[in-house]
Specification:
Distance between the termini: 63 Å
Strand content: 5-15%
Number of strands: 17
Strand order of the largest sheet: 12-14-13-15-16-17
CATH class of the largest domain: Alpha Beta
Shape: globular
CATH architecture of the largest domain: Alpha-Beta Complex
Number of domains: 5
Length: about 575
């Protein structure tokens, strides 16, 4: 464990407002600060930084915690790495590595070191590989570009990488967890996951190699075109972008989003160095929020086939959710940007960028291609599809301009189309309201509660537990008093296992309890729940010993009720009925 006094110093020298403002633009709202949540898509700010308690809470998705919790979430780090990240930021030297506790699994620093060694191995193998060099020549990739991206080659061998990494001291478990090698069930030997593939290292914005993408060089064979690193202790494929380490320095005005590694490499080679790609996944909301952190607008440059165009539609929706301007390229005469540049040159691609289309243009073109608008039935269907799309535009000016364009092109009265858009918006609004109300009810009753699944056992008692823990998190000096004073609250009084575990940790830390001291024994979701309880109590005026006493009494009554025998419960019920009848 990192000593408590060191954690306190880290938090003191990393003000939560200053740290979070490095990721999220914040505005003053009274004594607190608010902004758009970086952990889910929203248009209205629900992310709040509480300056008094040095904590954050999102009233939209429930993400919460202190400055360490924030870094754990935003940088995808474990507790120790988040503490080290902030320590480096503040110029604090942590205790020696041997004094710091890690999980029993492979450490993050070991996985990163292993990835670096694997990248070197792949890069050297490429120099000797005929298949690899032939593929580079075929795709027009020069050696300067290969060195720039650290491109390598995985030999068509059962265990060449496994043997190399083993000789460097890496274990089977580390190679497996790092998604470089698997272990044979037949003989227990490690074997390479990537074979006969051009290897693209994925490098994060800190310069660490966190993953790999492997493209087959065996065209036409029955095997996946790409194999990509799955989630590991150092990599989350939903939260990373290939080549962002290069693009982040030049993409302030515009970023180019591609589908694959080769497209990105080709664009960078042609001078379009703001190009990035998702890492083997369809575009995610996390990646979109990451892009918004670095750029003002995005040009979507996907493949021209049906799958690529379908992906464009989804991408537009994600960009709209976070308020990031997006346009799309119309690549003609080539299946992707890489092929287009090789055929037509970089000047032609630059003209494509200039003529990129808005979401409205893209959708309207797709709808017009779908229906025969020379017929009344075709125009009606096209108008219905466009009404469903236009109702989601938040800007009334933009919506009105688009309605007029559709009205003129389809020869449909403007007012009629405008009314259809309004009706569709009202219908969707009613549906969303019903879904929201149902969600609130489910959450209140504890359904689907993954953090505290025992909540359904007794919603009332669980609520009392939440109140107790919220008050004690706000006023940790009361922990010894509640445990040892008149109340004598015991962990056994708790109904839910999660809240019992939190209270046991409070007893362990005593009056020195702090959310920042909840290490890897608590997930970021569990810490969010603790801070939520604290935030709820912070909004209430009465958090004194009287409230604590009432909540403790409620827990004890609940326990007595649960531990009573069946005979006692029947006798009590009969006595109560007899009293009621005699009265």
């Amino acid at each position: 464990m990192i000593p408590a006094q060191v954690i306190e110093e880290i938090k003191y020298r990393n003000g939560i407002e200053e740290v979070i403002e490095g990721y999220v633009p914040l505005k003053r709202a009274g004594t607190n600060l608010v902004g758009l949540c970086p952990f889910h898509s929203e248009k209205t700010p629900s992310f709040t930084v509480f300056t008094g308690t040095k904590s954050f809470y999102c009233f939209g998705c429930g993400a919460a915690g202190d400055v360490i919790s924030f870094i754990r979430r935003i940088e995808n780090l474990d507790y120790v790495e988040a503490a080290r990240f902030l320590a480096r930021r503040a110029g604090i030297t942590l205790p020696e590595e041997g004094n710091v506790h890690y999980d029993s699994g492979p450490r993050r620093d070991r996985i990163l070191a292993m990835n670096r060694d694997a990248a070197r191995f792949f890069h050297e193998a490429l120099k000797k590989s005929r298949a690899g060099q032939a593929y580079l020549e075929k795709r027009g990739l020069g050696q300067a570009l290969v060195r720039h991206f650290g491109i390598g080659f995985a030999e068509n061998s059962f265990d060449s990488l496994a043997s190399h990494l083993s000789s460097l001291g890496y274990t089977k478990e580390e190679m497996k967890v790092g998604f470089l090698c698997s272990v044979s069930k037949k003989n227990g030997r490690s074997y390479d996951i990537f074979r006969n593939r051009l290897m693209f290292p994925v490098i994060d914005v800190k310069g660490d190699i966190v993953a790999f993408g492997g493209r087959t060089v065996s065209e036409g064979k029955d095997e996946p075109k790409y194999i990509n690193t799955s989630d590991t202790p150092v990599f989350n494929k939903r939260r990373n972008l290939f080549a962002l380490n290069f693009a982040k320095n030049v993409c302030a005005e515009q970023m180019i989003l591609c589908e694959g590694y080769m497209d990105v490499v080709s664009l960078h080679g042609a001078g379009f160095t703001s190009a990035v790609a998702s890492c083997g996944t369809a575009l995610t909301a996390d990646q979109v929020r990451l892009m918004k952190k670095y750029t003002k607008s995005v040009v979507i440059s996907y493949d021209a086939d049906a799958a690529g165009q379908k992906a464009v539609d989804k991408a537009f929706g994600l960009f709209r959710e976070v308020g990031l301007e997006a346009r799309v390229l119309k690549v003609e005469g080539a299946k992707d940007p890489d092929e287009f540049i090789r055929k037509n040159g970089k000047e032609a691609f630059s003209r494509l960028l200039t003529g990129s289309r808005t979401r409205f243009d893209f959708l309207f073109s797709s709808v017009l291609a779908r229906y025969d608008t020379t017929t009344a039935d075709g125009r009606i269907k096209a108008a219905a599809d466009m009404a469903a799309e236009l109702c989601g535009i938040s800007s009334e000016v933009e919506k009105d301009v688009c309605i007029r364009q559709v009205s003129e092109r389809l020869e449909i009265p403007y007012e009629s189309l405008k009314n259809d858009v309004k009706r569709e918006a009202a219908r969707r609004g009613g549906k969303e309201k019903r879904e929201w109300e149902a969600s609130v009810m489910r959450n209140a009753e504890g359904y689907g509660d993954r953090v505290n699944p025992d909540r359904l056992k007794s919603v009332g008692a669980a609520g009392a537990e939440d109140a107790i823990l919220g008050i004690l998190a706000l006023y940790p000096e009361r922990i010894p008093e509640v445990a040892e004073g008149e109340l004598k609250l015991s962990p056994d009084d708790f109904v839910t296992a999660f809240n019992r575990r939190v209270y046991e940790k409070m007893l362990e830390l005593g009056s020195g309890f702090d959310v920042g001291l909840l290490d890897d024994g608590f997930s970021t979701e569990e810490i969010s729940r603790i801070v939520r309880n604290m935030t709820v109590r912070q909004s209430l005026t009465d958090n004194g010993m009287k409230v604590l006493s009432q909540c403790v009494e409620k827990l004890r009554k609940n326990r007595e009720k649960k531990t009573a025998t069946l005979e006692e419960l029947i006798a009590n019920k009969r006595a109560a009925k007899k009293t009621q009848e005699s009265g």
